[in-house]
Amino acid sequence: xxYFAAEGNAHVVVRLDPGxxxxxxxxxxxxxxxxxxxxxxxxxxxLSRCHLHVVTTTExxxxxxxxxYEEPLELVQVSGVIAGGVPHLHLTVSDGVRAxxxxxxxxxxxxxxxxxVIARWAAPRLERRPDEWGIGRLxxxx
Length: 142
Fold this sequence. Notes:
By secondary structure, this protein is mostly beta strands. It has one helix at residues 22-32; strands spanning 2-4, 11-16, 38-55, 64-69, 73-83, 86-94, 99-104, 109-120, 126-130, 136-140.
């Protein structure tokens, strides 16, 4: 993994190589660059392993199902918000016949390459506060 960030620039570009882990690398860049608030605005590439979760009910609290795919997949998109230094990201992948997606989990492994663009901002400062169901809702930080 390598990343490119010019001082004062609002964007960080990340290059992931074969075997790199997607979410773990994004977290590493967020920590190294001191990004408290921002967004992953673009990500694409290929995966050899995909780990995600989806909700399977409409009631609260939600029931979640964790899925692992160990096959070549096109990484079509990753996007989401970074609040208080913590990314909440979703991804879309395709096996060439169907596209599917969900909440990005640890353990997604890059097959050939992946490229990620992170936008950072200084204000407003954000944090996630759990509601009565434990869902982290975005709020302005004090």
